[in-house]
Amino acid sequence: MARARNIKPGLFENEDLTEQSFFVRLLFIGLWTLADREGRLEDRPRQIKRKLFPCDDDDVDAALTVLAKLGFIQRYVSGEFNVIQIVNFLKHQTPHGTEKDSVLPDTQGNFAIHERDSKGYVIGKKRKNNVISEENNDTPQDKTKSQLGCKRPDSPNPDSLIQNNLSEQAAAATTAAGGEKTPEVLLPAFAELLQNLETARGCTFRLEGTEQVFADWQAKGVTEAHVREAHAIAVQRRVKAGNTSAVNVGLLDVILADLTRSSTSTVVALPPVDPKEARRRELQQRHAGEVFDGPMNERFEVMSNGAVLMSSGTGFEGALNPSQARAFWDDVDAGIVTPRAA
Predict the structure, then answer these.
(1) Which residues of 318-340 are buried (b: 16+ CB within 10 A; e: fewer)?
(2) Is the same domain home to 296 and 259?
(3) Looking at the domain assignment, is residue 56 inside a domain?
(4) Are residues 56 and 86 in the same domain?
(5) H/E segment holding residue 67
(6) Of 86, 63, 62, whose CA–CA distance to 73 is shortest?
(7) Contacts of 195 (CB under 8 A, 6+ apart)
(8) Residue 284 — φ and ψ, nearest 5°?
(9) Which residues of the chain have a pLDDT value below 70?
(10) N or C: lower Cβ tally within 10 Å for the chain?
(11) pTM for this one?
(12) pLDDT score of 234
């Protein structure tokens, strides 16, 4: 999403930049409008070109290389993310108070999560959440595999793996912000839910390092329905970015933090989420690109953007409206409408 940014006169007087082509200079300015509040954006030259220069033939990747060599941007890989960091972005830009937190990590794998007031404005405090530290004990081969995307397991996850981690999470659920013992029932439920959701995608959800995050969620009033909603949003972002890797707890934490509204002294629970709607979004992401057969010989095709196209023997063809789409996904969940065999 493009954002309004400031351009200072000194930009046009920078000796290193003024020696570059007009395209490189304009690209640098354009990157500011694509960057999030931390000055980061995905390092995807083709996507950047489509957004900034859809009618031009200039080489965006080559221009990014020039900007990186000059020290205006930094290109790096952090975990599963390819990122561009605009150097000194926050020195020259003041993001709007309600602008969402970044969903891209820094070079150390840290996400910045800002504390906000009840209206969603940042209050000047932020914390960091590291999502690649859980990979610190991996071998280089394991890390390489994790960056290639999800692979459907040959067999279900061993019960021992799940139970051992669940017991550790239950033991870690000790105290909330006020020092009171927190209920332990939701922590295993979070883990089991996320493992099931990722297994359905052909991925494996990693439980290492999730105990404290789950405890924080519980203290904030996060429910299973909220986690389903956050997971659906995370998968949607993955699909949009062409990323097939597993959703991790760090990204979910960022999304849930964006949904919550808290102050320095009071934790405000997340707004209620309709479990049915969260389930529909989960199914929508899982079955993107698939074709379904209806009970009356209808044919339904799920598009990559979530729209559902229907055609029937009577010659009718068109996209389902929101009400019809909700009914369609409920029928899918009930097994009334089934996916066509490959």
Answers:
(1) eebeeeebeebbebbeeeebeee
(2) no
(3) yes
(4) yes
(5) helix 60-69
(6) 86
(7) 157, 162, 204, 205, 207
(8) -60, -45
(9) 1-2, 122-123, 126-188, 209, 259-273, 313-316, 342
(10) C
(11) 0.42
(12) 84
